[in-house]
Design goal:
By secondary structure, the protein is an alpha/beta fold. The chain folds into two domains: 222 residues, Alpha-Beta Barrel (TIM Barrel); 51 residues, no CATH class. It has eleven helices and ten strands. It has an eight-stranded parallel barrel with strand order 1-2-3-4-5-6-7-8, surrounded by seven helices. Strands 9-10 form a two-stranded antiparallel sheet. Strand 3, helix 3 and strand 4 form a beta-alpha-beta unit. The longest helix is centred in the last third of the chain and has 17 residues. Magnesium ion (MG) binds next to helix 6.
Length: 285
């Protein structure tokens, strides 16, 4: 089974042709062509055309290609959604999703997109936080992913966005629970200080510990750190190999819980161990 990695998801303004060209050779797992906040109003039409042309022209290898559209209700949304739906992009990312009704409106607008086209939702509106479960539930119709938008959350809440992100830790855990509870993937928000490698590593390690699949990024410099931090560590791989071997041993046949090193490993951990080994295989490839 191949598991698509989403360790590093690099945003770029789709108005920036140089950035798009660079993305064809950068080692990020996901490319997000932004039509929304990174693009000035006068550049919206050109950005849309660039994103569609980039997906059509290809050259991105295995990278997952995502188009972030302008929100429903803005002057650009309908044309963005129509263009993204027909573009062949792997997924469409919608900004500022606040409730399940909005998800249904996007699904409706994406009606013509192939069934495999994903719908991803930015979790960045304060009102979304108490609706995470119903938002995730409404996303069942297409392959889905939550993308945390910490800049917008911080702005709306008046919360400080430090490297520690203390005001956001609770909602990060809730967002992961909602996403995973409904079979969605989830990506962490960006780290604006893109020259602070240590800060990025800290946020990646933390996000991985919370259960995030990867991190959204704003600069190529951040890719390598995110890929490393979201790949299984040597210790995790060793644990997974030991767990798989432990349950395969004849003396453990029929047992639900065994000892691996100094720890209990239950059969429920086996799926986790197999996932780690599968992901680490892909991370090397
Ligand atoms: N994607 C692809 N390439 C990028 C990139 C990105 N997000 N950000 C920078 N680059 C490229 C630059 O084009 C430049 O390439 P070159 O040297 O071959 O010309 C190289 O990386 C170095 O860029 P640098 O000079 O360090 O950055 P900058 O000052 O030009 O730009 C930002 C800084 C923050 C404006 C830019 O990184 C950016 O636009 N990031 C994405 C913003 C975004 O999409 N936000 C929306 C979601 S939060
Ligand atoms: Mg935003």
């Amino acid at each position: 089974m191949t598991i698509g990695l989403r360790r590093s998801a690099l945003y770029m303004p789709a108005s920036n042709l140089r950035a798009i060209e660079k993305a064809r050779s950068l080692p990020c797992d996901v490319v997000i062509f932004d039509l929304e906040d990174a693009v000035a109003p006068e550049a919206k039409e050109a950005a849309r055309a660039n994103a569609v042309a980039a997906v059509r022209d290809g050259g991105f290898g295995d990278r997952e290609l995502v188009i972030r559209v302008n929100a429903l209700g803005t002057p650009w949304a309908i044309d963005d959604l129509a263009a993204a739906a027909e573009s062949g992009a792997h997924a469409v990312l919608a900004p500022k999703v606040g409730d399940a009704e909005t998800v249904r409106a996007y699904h409706e607008a994406l009606g013509k997109a192939p069934a495999g086209t994903g719908f991803w939702a930015m979790i960045e509106a304060a009102r979304a936080i108490f609706r995470l479960d119903t938002i995730a539930e409404a996303m069942a119709a297409r392959p889905g992913c939550f993308v945390l938008g910490t800049n917008d959350l911080a702005k709306e809440m008046g919360a400080a966005l430090t490297v520690e992100r203390t005001p956001f830790l609770g909602m990060m855990a809730l967002a992961v629970a909602a996403a995973k509870g409904h079979g969605l993937a989830i990506l962490d928000g960006v780290y604006n200080a893109f020259e602070d490698d240590a800060g990025l590593e800290r946020q990646c390690a933390e996000a991985k510990a919370y259960g995030f699949d990867g991190k959204t990024l704003i600069h190529p410099r951040q890719i390598e750190g995110a890929n490393r931090r979201f790949s299984p560590s040597e210790a995790e791989i060793a644990w997974a190999e030991a767990a798989v071997a432990g349950f395969a041993a004849p003396e453990n046949a029929g047992k639900g819980a065994i000892r691996v090193g100094g720890e209990m490993v239950e059969r429920l951990h086996l799926a986790q161990a197999e996932r780690i080994l599968s992901v680490s295989g892909n991370a090397l490839g």
